[in-house]
Every structure is written in structure tokens, then in C-alpha cells.
From TrEMBL:
Belongs to the glycogen phosphorylase family. It comes from the Bacteria. CDD domains: GT35_Glycogen_Phosphorylase. GO terms for molecular function: glycogen phosphorylase activity; pyridoxal phosphate binding. The keyword Membrane does not apply. Its cofactor is pyridoxal 5'-phosphate. Its EC number is 2.4.1.1. This is Alpha-1,4 glucan phosphorylase. It comes from Microbacterium terrae. Pfam families: Phosphorylase. GO terms for cellular component: cytoplasm.
Length: 848
């Protein structure tokens, strides 16, 4: 029996409590509401108002008139939550009563962004909430601004995880996202004299209304100690005798699908001390020491590591990895699956997707559970394990591939190290069987490296049922360059799944004006079937549509201008092209190349080569955080700010060029910047950017890309067409060839006078008050030591930028290209990525 309610989506069918419950009532339950979830509040403005005021009173303990903005935000979040909870609980129950396979997404990072608008959109309550708050005299904008985004990720990899769980919920695919509830997310970036300064991100200072803590369901996670052999009825077995342990407390978050009544779960673990720990390890009668020990345990989930491209082998990081993976696997087996589930059938119920190598320690952990705890034979356990894991690689940079020194791993997880040795032994035996005693090959394929470290990508590849890269080019390079011996040994194991982004957050929420335009033109099915954007193609030739499109961009620029003004006191000129480069600061991404273009444009004006008045107005927007220990990246940030100060203030420029670098780029700011952009900078050295996902967000919002043939740029260009994309630079094979020949940067600096002048300006102190020493190391690096060959692509880049300038003068043609970018980018929905994972890797079914 279902009760009809007034608005779409969630609330259209409110489950009648108990009506379809497949789960028996708890013993002794007599009240009809004891079994199932209580129904949602009535989805009307009156119903919303009543629930909102109730939450203010009963959850916050305040009246509306005495409330703070935080109280009002909390009450709103709780109210939205109240509408979702019934469907969530109902879904969990239905899933448990089914025998469906679930995707257990294991990721050390989730870069979620703000939740309020997403949850309003998913529940179909946006209009009702706006009207309800207006009736209460509450300013909803003020409450939006109140939400602190959980920055529990570094960049692309963490944001991808957040897009994926959004898509899985929208596609009704059973999924639990597992990760870490860091108390401090990615650092807050400020600038002092143009230099990056990091501040702790205490996102939980005012609490978070979206989380459901379950301290009573904490798990014990052990570390250290040793292993011992024992006799188990004639069979010699190993077991782990750990030395210390901590508690893993689950915090649940709802992940609502887009207006489909599905709510999945994100479960993040927080560490806490346990008593055994206090007493056995540190106690010795010292109360103060024992309390201090608590801090030690809590350290595990304290802070997100802010490096995203150098794996440093820090012990705390390995603790984090094991902590969340062990808790997650145990959670799935002990809590999600029915009691006494036959674990030989685990592959029918779970696929653990490894988001990069960070959760790979889960492989020996599952083996340990199966062999040591469940007494399964090694071979049977290995067969189960191999079917239960799949691995996604997100990089090609050798320094980002994680390796753990065996002494560290053996100290922290001695039994796991033994298991890894055995996995390796059996694997290498199989290699020998196939290829004979080819010692070079054995050395190259050994999970344990010659210098005594565990190569986690190898372990993941040996253990995983599938290994995928994140864009066509990246997957190809992964097979051919990084893991060719494994590709040969495991035919069919390697595959590609090109990344995607959720159109709910990055089009519908971030760009309501464009969304309205699209819906007006082609109807509203596109948000869950993004390929339908193709139907927009004819509108590219419709002058009225293009005008409306241009107005949309202008409106988004004004909105961004207001945001930057309020946030950072920055101003954007109305009539400028907005040229945007937002992403982590890394040499391979080549923010330096962008800077050389800006310096060249500046130099052309001040040297008199061009008249300022003839230069098309451009505002360059940067957003980028540098890893705190990455000196060159921080120096480049300083240089961007320094160039900005000089260019912005030089009267000879007549305001034609402006450089803006708002600090602390995050998801919230991305949602403002991307919809306003005209030009998207995707200029990494070919072969280095695994995919990129920002590139997709820009194209979907109608920016044109200036880019190299790298990562998913390749696929974007193929889809949008060469006429609607500014390609430049060496291809990956050309990069390889130049590197093999010997890259001599000086040659390029001599050949191109513009480049020589730009380097001279930077190196001579023109942007550092005459002090040449400040930025000389950057120039010296580019001239002597640059793995990313910035200078080699300069000439081609400047030519591409000149083409951009020309193209922008023809507004109609530019807008036509922009519309075609939107129309042809439907492929980049994360729904499509999920479909690919489901078909090729997971083989899961939606829960109808
Ligand atoms: C690596 C490390 C190394 C140890 C310290 C902490 C840490 C945290 C994250 C990472 C992973 C970096 C890899 C990464 O983020 N890759 C990006 O993944 C995106 C999603 O697939 C992709 O679009 C980007 O091209 C790729 O750089």
C-alpha cells in the first residue's frame, strides 16, 4: 500500500510504515511503527514549515526568534534529512532481504562538497523548502553560506569517488562508500605576500548535521605484535598476535539518488582509543599517560594527507589505510551480510573496488580473515579474494605509486606481510611455469621490489579481477608502459573506464541557468540520461538560443564576480573573456606554461609590440593548492601572485589583462567558477594527466578547451570536434621521442624570442621588485631540469592562444562552438562511467 503525496521523486510515493516489510518484527514488538521506518513528514510547504520549526525547537533547543544562523542551518538540514530517512532505512532493509551484490567502494578520500542543495535537489524539495523558509522569514542564502564543505579529499581522485556514489544511488545500484572521517580535511589555503600558507581545516567545529554516528557499533582494529604458528588438529596454522588496537567508529551519511527514492550509504570511520589500549600499552599506573594514549589512537583519523602525487611511505598513512579498510571489510561481512553467510560465496555479494592503491592492504586482510579466522584453505580463499577485488589506477607518475618498506609493514602488520610473501611466492611460481626461469622478468614482476618494498600496484594487479585506467590514453599507457608484463601474463584483465562527473552537481546545481535553457529546449530527461544533450546540437545554429546562451554566461560571470568580491575583494570586468586554470598545483599540469603565456601577453604590450587598446580583454583565473612540502609548486604559486600584482597594476596594460588567484579553491568555489568560464586550460604534458575531470565539467558548462592530447582531453576533442577545441603541443609519442633524443630546453628558449623574453622577465626580478633570486630557481628549473618539458610546448601554446583570441572576436561562432561542447559531452556523465564499471567489472544489478 502506498500513499500518494504532492511532489515528485521521493515523496511521490511515501512507503506506508510496515506495509512491505520483508523483515520480521523484533520479538515483542506490538506497535505498528516498530518494524519499518516512520513515514516522511508531509511534503507540502505547511508540512515543511512544521517540521522545520519542530527541529529548531526539539533538536536545537531554540525558538526561531532566538536562533543563530547555525541553528537555522541545522534545522533546515535536519528537515531535509527527515524526508530522506524513511527511504534510506527502507532501502537498507530491502537490500538486506535481497541477495544482491553490492559495490563496496573503498576510497581514502571523498571530496563531497556542500550537501544541502544536493539533498534538496535529490529529494525534490528545493521549491518547497524555499517557500517554507520564506514564510518563516528565514534567508535561505544565508543558510547555504553557513554550510562548511567536507574537504575529505585532495583533488580529482576524491571528487571522482563522490561523483560515483551519486551516480550509483541515482541508478539504484546497491553501494556502500567506505572511507575515513578525517577530523581535518584538506588544508585551508591563504596567501601572505603572495605565498601559500596552510591553515587547518576544522570543518567539524560547528558539527555536521548530515552524519549519523554509531559509537555503539565500533570495531576493534589491531596493529603490531607478531605472528605465531599453532597446531589446529594436525594442521599448522598461523595467527596474528597484535600488540595494540584502536576503535573504529562508523559515521553514516545518506547518499540520495536523484529523485528516485533511493538512498545509499557512505560510511566513514573515525578512530578512538579503547580501554585495552590504555591499560596494556601505556598504563603502568600512569593515569596521565593513559589519557595521552587516547590522543595517539585518535590521531589515526585526525588529518588527511595533503600530498597527492608523492607517496612518502609514512607510517601514519599506512595506519590510516589499514584502519579504514579492515573496518570496512569486517563491516560488510559481519554487519551487512546475514549472520553465518557462507564466505565461499562472497563474490556473489560483494565487489571491493580499490580506488587507487590506498586500500590495497585490504587484499591480505581478506585473506587473513578467510584463512586464519574462517579456516578456509589458502587456494579457496585466494579464489574468493581474486573475485572480490578490482583495482583502479589513477596515475602514471612513478613517484605516486605507493610502495611500503617491508620493515615498516612487518612492524605494523606482521601477518599481512607473511600473506603478501605467500601471494608473491605463488604468483612468481606461476610466472616461472609460464616463462621459465627468466630472472629479469621475475625481478620486474615481483610484488616485493629488489630494494625491499611492497609494490602496492603490483599486489592490486595480481589480486584484482580487473585493473582499469581512467581514460583511453591512460589505460593504454598503463598496459604498455607501466605494467606490460602483467598485461601479458593476465590477458583480459586490463580495461579502461573513462571517468565522468555527476551532472546533478556540476550542471543542474552549479549552473541553473544553463539547466533551464537545456530543459526548455529538449525537455527534462537529460539529467539522468546525459547523452540526450545531443538533441541540443541543432540549437547551435539557432541565433536566439545562442543569444540566450550568451546571456547565461554573462549572468554566471556576474554571479562569480559577486562571489569573488564578497569572498576575496577581487573584481572581474564584465566584458573580459574568462580564461580558467583550476586544479592542484603540480609541475606536470604545467601552470608555468599558462604563466609564460600571461607574461608574454604582458610583454607584448609593455614592449610596444601591440597596442594595449587592440588587445582583447582577458581575465585569467587560477585556483590551486600546493602540497605543503612541495617547494617548486609553492614557488609557482608565489610567482602567479607576483605576476598578478604587476600586470593588474601596470597602467600601460589599460586593464586589458587581469590575473586573479582566489585562495582556497574547493568544490564550492569550483561550482561558481566553472559555469562562468569561457576557456578551459587543460595543458598537462601529454602522457602525464591520467584523465582529468575538471576538463569534463568545463565542456559540459560550455567552455571551450585549450588543451594537449592528454588524459580525457583526447576523448573530449574526439567528441566535440577539432573545430570546437584548441589543440596544441606534443603528442605522447612525440614527448617520448624528444625525451629519448635528449630534451635541451635552451634550444627552445633561443628559437622563440617571445619565450626568451618571458624567461628573462621572470628571471630578472621584474615580478619580485628587482630581486632576481626569488624566481630564478623556477627559470633555472625550466632551463635545466624540467621533466615536464614546458618550454618545448611554448611556441605551439602561444599559437593556440592567438587562435583563441581570434575566435573569441566572432561571438556567434564562439557561442556555436560552446553549445556544441555542451551537446557533445553527454558521454562524460559519471552515470556512464558507472554503467561501464557495472558491465565490465562489477556485474551488479540495480535493486529495482
Ligand atoms: C596519492 C597520494 C600519495 C600519498 C599521499 C596521499 C595521496 C593522495 C592521493 C594520491 C592519488 C593521486 C592520484 C590522483 O589524484 N589522480 C587523479 O585522479 C583523477 C581521477 O581519476 C584523474 O582525473 C586525474 O587525472 C589524476 O591525476
Amino acid at each position: 500500500m502506498r500513499r500518494r503525496a504532492v511532489v515528485a521523486g521521493y515523496i511521490r510515493f511515501v512507503p506506508e510504515a510496515n506495509s512491505t516489510s520483508p523483515v520480521p518484527a523484533p520479538a515483542g514488538a506490538t506497535h505498528p511503527l516498530a518494524i519499518g521506518p516512520v513515514g516522511a513528514p508531509e511534503a507540502t510547504v505547511d508540512g515543511f514549515v512544521a517540521q522545520y520549526l519542530r527541529n529548531l525547537n526539539f533538536d536545537r533547543g531554540v525558538t526561531l526568534s532566538a536562533s543563530t544562523a547555525n541553528d537555522r542551518f541545522y534545522a533546515l538540514a535536519y528537515t531535509v534529512r527527515d524526508y530522506l530517512v524513511a527511504r534510506w532505512l527502507e532501502g537498507v532493509r530491502r537490500y538486506r532481504a535481497s541477495d544482491r551484490k553490492a559495490v563496496c567502494y573503498l576510497s581514502a578520500e571523498y571530496l563531497l562538497g556542500r550537501q544541502l542543495d544536493n539533498n534538496l535537489l535529490a529529494s525534490g524539495l528545493s521549491d518547497i523548502a524555499a517557500e517554507a523558509l520564506a514564510q518563516c522569514g528565514v534567508d535561505i542564502e544565508e543558510l547555504r553560506a553557513q554550510e562548511v564543505e567536507p574537504g575529505l579529499g585532495n583533488g580529482g581522485l576524491g571528487r571522482l569517488a563522490a561523483c560515483f556514489i551519486d551516480s550509483l544511488a541515482t541508478m539504484s545500484v546497491p553501494n556502500v562508500g567506505y572511507g575515513i572521517r578525517y577530523e581535518y580535511g584538506i588544508f585551508r589555503q591563504t596567501f601572505e605576500d603572495g605565498r601559500q600558507v596552510e591553515q587547518p581545516d576544522s570543518w567539524l567545529e560547528l558539527g555536521s548535521p548530515w552524519e549519523f554516528p554509531h559509537p555503539e557499533a565500533a570495531q576493534t582494529i589491531s596493529f603490531g605484535g607478531s605472528t605465531e604458528k599453532y597446531d589446529d588438529g594436525g594442521v599448522t596454522r598461523s595467527r596474528w598476535v597484535p600488540a595494540w588496537s584502536v576503535q573504529a567508529v562508523p559515521y553514516n551519511y545518506m547518499v540520495p539518488g536523484y529523485q528516485n527514492g533511493r538512498v545509499n550509504t557512505l560510511r566513514l570511520w573515525s578512530s578512538r582509543a579503547n580501554h585495552a589500549f590504555d591499560l596494556s600499552v601505556f598504563n603502568a599506573g600512569d593515569y596521565v599517560e593513559a589519557v595521552r594514549a587516547q590522543t595517539f589512537a585518535e590521531n589515526i583519523s585526525k588529518v588527511l594527507y595533503p600530498e597527492d602525487s608523492t607517496a612518502q611511505g609514512k607510517e601514519l598513512r599506512l595506519q590510516q589505510q589499514y584502519f579504514f579498510v579492515a573496518a570496512s571489510i569486517r563491516d560488510f561481512i559481519d554487519v551487512v551480510l546475514p549472520e553465518d553467510f557462507d564466505l565461499t560465496r562472497l563474490p556473489e555479494r560483494a565487489i571491493f573496488q580499490l580506488n587507487d592503491t590506498h586500500p590495497v592492504i585490504g587484499v591480505p586482510e581478506l585473506m587473513r580473515i578467510l584463512v586464519d579466522e574462517k579456516k578456509m584453505e589458502w587456494d579457496a580463499a585466494w579464489a574468493v579474494t581474486q573475485q572480490c577485488f578490482a583495482y583502479t589506477c589513477h596515475t602514471l607518475l612513478p613517484e605516486a605509486l605507493e610502495v611500503w618498506p617491508i620493515d615498516l609493514l612487518g612492524r605494523l602488520l606482521p601477518r599481512h606481510l607473511e600473506i603478501i610473501y605467500r601471494i608473491n611466492e605463488e604468483f612468481l611460481l606461476a610466472v616461472r611455469e609460464r616463462f621459465g626461469d627468466d630472472e629479469a622478468r621475475i625481478r620486474d614482476m615481483s610484488i616485493i621490489s629488489p630494494d625491499g618494498a611492497v609494490r602496492m600496484a603490483f599486489l592490486a594487479t595480481v589480486a584484482g579481477s580487473k585493473v582499469n585506467g581512467v581514460a583511453e590514453l591512460h589505460s593504454q599507457l598503463l598496459r604498455e608502459k607501466v605494467l606490460p608484463a602483467f598485461d601479458e601474463f593476465f590477458p583480459g584483465k586490463f580495461t579502461n573506464v573513462t571517468n565522468g562527473v555527476t551532472p546533478r552537481r556540476f550542471v543542474r546545481l552549479a549552473n541553473p541557468e544553463l539547466s533551464a535553457l537545456i530543459t526548455e529546449a529538449i525537455g527534462d530527461g537529460w539529467l539522468t540520461d546525459l547523452e540526450r544533450l545531443r538533441e541540443l546540437e541543432p540549437f547551435a545554429d539557432d541565433a536566439d538560443f545562442r543569444t540566450a546562451f550568451g546571456e547565461m554566461k554573462a549572468a554566471n560571470k556576474r554571479r562569480l564576480a559577486a562571489t569573488l568580491q564578497a569572498r576575496d575583494g577581487l573584481t572581474i570586468a564584465d566584458d573580459h573573456m574568462l580564461d580558467v586554470m583550476v586544479k592542484r598545483l603540480h609541475e606536470y599540469k604545467r601552470q608555468m606554461l599558462k604563466l609564460l603565456h600571461i607574461v608574454t601577453a604582458y610583454d607584448r604590450i609593455v614592449s610596444g609590440e601591440v597596442e594595449a587598446s587592440s588587445v582583447p580583454g582577458r581575465t585569467f583565473v587560477f585556483g590551486a593548492k600546493a602540497a605543503p612540502g612541495y617547494d617548486m609548486a609553492k614557488r609557482i604559486i608565489h610567482l602567479i601572485n607576483a605576476v598578478g600584482s604587476v600586470v593588474n597594476d601596470d597602467p600601460r596594460v589599460e586593464g586589458r589583462l587581469k590575473v586573479l588567484f582566489p585562495p582556497n579553491y574547493n568544490v564550492t568555489l569550483a561550482e561558481r567558477i566553472i559555469p562562468a568560464a569561457d576557456l578551459s586550460e587543460q595543458i598537462s604534458l601529454a602522457g602525464k594527466e591520467a584523465s582529468g575531470t575538471g576538463n569534463m565539467k568545463f565542456a559540459l558548462n560550455g567552455a571551450l578547451t585549450v588543451g594537449t592530447d592528454d588524459g580525457a582531453n583526447v576523448e573530449i576533442r574526439e567528441l566535440v570536434g577539432d573545430d570546437n577545441f584548441f589543440l596544441f603541443g606534443m603528442s605522447e609519442p612525440e614527448v617520448e621521442a624528444l625525451w629519448a633524443r635528449g630534451y635541451t630546453p635552451a634550444e627552445f628558449a633561443e628559437k622563440d624570442a617571445g619565450l626568451g623574453r618571458a624567461l628573462d622577465l621572470i628571471g630578472s626580478g621584474a615580478f619580485s621588485g628587482g630581486d632576481a633570486s626569488v624566481f630564478a630557481p623556477i627559470v633555472s628549473n625550466l632551463m635545466n631540469d624540467d621533466r615536464f618539458m614546458v618550454l618545448a610546448d611554448y611556441t605551439s601554446y602561444i599559437a593556440a592562444q592567438d587562435r583563441v583570441d581570434d575566435a573569441y572576436t566572432d561571438t556567434a561562432a564562439w557561442q556555436r562552438s560552446a553549445v556544441l561542447n555542451v551537446a557533445r559531452s553527454g558521454f562524460f556523465s559519471s552515470d556512464r562511467s558507472m554503467r561501464d564499471y557495472i558491465d565490465r567489472i562489477w556485474h551488479t544489478e540495480p535493486l529495482g
